[in-house]
């Protein structure tokens, strides 16, 4: 390719389902070097010993973490105006400058590189605190540290890269992570951005969409496809790119229903030269690096979800105690009281899940890839439900903006804003639907390891015979263990018979885990290689596992608090309420595994897509325009103004 040639759009990015699956599978972390509570749970083995007694933080981590939280709380109280950020849809430069001076950009970066070196537990506490004042600021800090330059460089970078980039990220430079493209979401096999080797450089061409922090970033982590060639194995590869490099244009600052201060944009690369020294890891290792980074990076979202739950509880309590209808506070009416109970119990459980997963991440004794994914999935779903219930409790005032409430003399409670801000968490860093599939894949990993060849129609007959022998040995040992367990013994888990007896809930978790494993096995036996297409079934399997994990975490946290003399009685009661509520949801999910409308829904969808129901769309006007569903992302020079706006 000549120095001035413009690469054509790669038509090969229309990939088959098999290729897409193989790319995703190759990016997964294949081995389990440490035990996993959630993995064992999906296999029907309730390993309470992996989470109880609740892991304890290092006293020095606590000291440094609490000292930083005190400084951060003062800064947020005196210097950050969340209402202004919402009103102006921008984070002021002085706010970011203050965060830099506080060291908030380097919360997760090692002290050797100028960071604060906070534990995962205290990093998450800080994000929850920040997010309660401004979710947009929380998103800025989270995207910078959880998925931006610091994490992949610290874990996979060379020493030279760490020395060059980590001190900048700790104190001065904002970073962003660029993977998604206009026509590429959760299917990275179709990635179209290229990085072509030229001498000692790579030349980047392509367009990236939804680049959180991309409008203001100083450093970027960019995922691009390196073509295979002599001396280059190729594949999706990660690069650190200077955001002010020649050929980079931020073409648009995107606007959303919530997180109005977020700096999220569209970034075009046209013949951007990146030194080979800025490549993170080997060629082709980009997706593996991204997924490994997300194993703990995903915990930032449930941190802010747990913080949102705390705020929902505070507002629901204060408002429902003061607002009277029919002669008594609305909290005393059962219809409203049930919502408050749900918010309180679920907030306790979300914090229990978050702190348990975070402390396990700090201890590094267990593999938390499933636990972190479950925390993200569960936190994003349940926080949205809590915010919706808060809006309902507030009634018309819940639907009214904080600015409007203040204008007519009432307390400015941004309940509707919270609902809008939280909604993205069900899409960010893996949508709920994708998280279901990701977790389901990990949950059945042990089965595929021994029986994958048996259910794969492409496997030769001779290999199927060997797979059958291997699977027979595994299931001969595994299946009998699903028939009986401690959950059937009345005195099991009696150490949890505190102010309220929680031992029955743990026995329920143990029995349900075995039942869940039996259902998973039956599903595999029934559908075999077509199991992956049964996304409704897999989603319910994962949701049951999420509820059982949350119940376990809530009970363990309650016992930890009782033993420490820290609100033990109240914690036990909240855990008991949550577990009773969760058991109702679990029972419904188990029922829907086999009694559902999945097959009927597929037939309806076929009819809708074929045009058989267009008559149903008559009688309305479409307020949208006739533009393309997906913007053109053909590589080439930008025709738009560069709207990049680094913080001053």
From TrEMBL:
SUPFAM superfamilies: Acyl-CoA dehydrogenase C-terminal domain-like, Acyl-CoA dehydrogenase NM domain-like. The keyword Flavoprotein applies. It comes from Streptomyces pactum. Residues 176-272 form the Acyl-CoA oxidase/dehydrogenase middle domain. Residues 284-442 form the Acyl-CoA dehydrogenase/oxidase C-terminal domain. InterPro entries: Acyl-CoA_dehydrogenase, Acyl-CoA_Oxase/DH_mid-dom, Acyl-CoA_Oxase/DH_mid-dom_sf, AcylCo_DH-like_C, AcylCo_DH/oxidase_C, AcylCoA_DH/ox_N, AcylCoA_DH/ox_N_sf, AcylCoA_DH/oxidase_NM_dom_sf. This is Acyl-CoA dehydrogenase family protein. Residues 66-171 form the Acyl-CoA dehydrogenase/oxidase N-terminal domain. Pfam families: Acyl-CoA_dh_1, Acyl-CoA_dh_M, Acyl-CoA_dh_N. Residues 626-648 are annotated as: Disordered. Gene3D superfamilies: Acyl-CoA dehydrogenase/oxidase, N-terminal domain (1.10.540.10), Butyryl-CoA Dehydrogenase, subunit A, domain 2 (2.40.110.10), Butyryl-CoA Dehydrogenase, subunit A, domain 3 (1.20.140.10). Its cofactor is FAD. Residues 638-648 have a biased composition (Basic and acidic residues).
């Amino acid at each position: 390719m000549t120095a001035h040639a413009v690469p054509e759009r790669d038509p090969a990015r229309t990939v088959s389902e098999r290729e897409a699956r193989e790319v995703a599978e190759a990016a997964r972390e294949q081995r389990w070097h440490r035990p996993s509570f959630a993995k064992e749970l999906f296999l029907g083995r309730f390993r309470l010993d992996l989470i109880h007694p609740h892991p304890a933080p290092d006293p020095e981590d606590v000291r440094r973490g609490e000292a930083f939280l005190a400084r951060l709380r003062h800064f947020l109280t005196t210097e950050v105006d969340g209402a202004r950020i919402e009103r102006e849809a921008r984070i002021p430069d002085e706010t970011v400058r203050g965060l830099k001076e506080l060291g908030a950009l380097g919360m997760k970066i090692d002290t050797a590189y100028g960071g604060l070196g906070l534990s995962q537990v205290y990093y998450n506490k800080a994000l929850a605190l920040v997010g309660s004042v401004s979710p947009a600021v929380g998103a800025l800090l989270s995207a910078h540290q959880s998925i931006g330059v610091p994490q992949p460089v610290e874990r996979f970078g060379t020493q030279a890269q760490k020395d060059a980039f980590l001190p900048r990220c700790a104190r001065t430079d904002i970073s962003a992570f660029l993977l998604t493209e206009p026509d590429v979401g959760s299917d990275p096999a179709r990635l179209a951005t290229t990085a072509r080797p030229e001498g000692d450089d790579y030349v980047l061409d392509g367009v990236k969409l939804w680049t959180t922090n991309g409008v203001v970033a100083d450093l970027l982590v960019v995922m691009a496809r390196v073509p295979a060639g002599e001396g280059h194995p190729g594949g999706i590869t990660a690069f650190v790119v200077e955001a002010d490099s020649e050929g980079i244009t931020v073409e648009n600052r995107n606007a959303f229903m919530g997180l109005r201060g977020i700096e999220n944009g569209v970034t075009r690369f046209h013949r951007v030269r990146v030194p080979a020294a800025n490549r993170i890891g080997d060629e082709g290792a980009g997706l593996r690096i991204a997924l490994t980074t997300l194993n703990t990076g995903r915990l930032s979202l449930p941190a802010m979800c747990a913080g949102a739950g705390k705020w929902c509880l505070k507002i629901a309590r204060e408002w429902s105690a003061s607002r009277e209808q029919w002669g008594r506070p609305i909290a005393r009416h059962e219809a409203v009281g049930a919502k408050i109970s749900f918010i309180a119990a679920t907030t306790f459980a979300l914090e229990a899940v978050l702190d348990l997963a975070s402390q396990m991440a700090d201890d590094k004794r267990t593999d938390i890839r499933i636990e972190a994914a479950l925390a993200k999935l569960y936190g994003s779903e349940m926080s949205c439900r809590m915010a919706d219930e808060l809006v309902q409790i507030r009634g018309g005032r819940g639907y009214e903006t904080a600015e409007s409430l203040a204008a007519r003399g009432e307390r400015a409670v941004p309940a509707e804003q919270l609902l809008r801000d939280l909604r993205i968490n069900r899409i960010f860093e893996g949508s709920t639907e994708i998280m279901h599939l990701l977790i389901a894949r990990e949950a059945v990993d042990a089965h595929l390891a021994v029986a994958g060849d048996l259910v794969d129609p492409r496997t030769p007959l001779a290999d199927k015979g060997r797979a059958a022998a291997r699977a027979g040995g595994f299931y001969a040992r595994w299946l009998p263990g699903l028939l009986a367990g401690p959950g059937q013994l009345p005195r099991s888990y009696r150490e949890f018979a505190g102010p309220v007896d929680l031992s029955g809930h743990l026995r329920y978790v143990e029995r349900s885990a075995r039942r869940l494993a039996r259902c998973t096995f039956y599903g595999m036996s029934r559908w075999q290689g077509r199991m992956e297409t049964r996304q409704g079934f897999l989603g319910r399997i994962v949701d049951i596992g999420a509820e059982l994990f949350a119940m376990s975490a809530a009970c363990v946290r309650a016992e930890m608090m009782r033993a420490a003399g820290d609100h033990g009685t109240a914690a036990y009661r909240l855990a008991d309420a949550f577990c009773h509520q969760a058991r109702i949801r679990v029972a419904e999910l188990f029922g829907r595994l086999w009694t559902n409308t999945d097959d009927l829904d597929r037939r309806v969808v076929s009819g809708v897509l074929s045009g058989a129901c267009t008559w149903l769309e008559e009688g309305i006007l479409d307020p949208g325009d006739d533009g393309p569903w997906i913007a053109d992302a053909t590589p080439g020079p930008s025709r738009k103004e560069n709207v990049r706006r680094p913080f001053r």
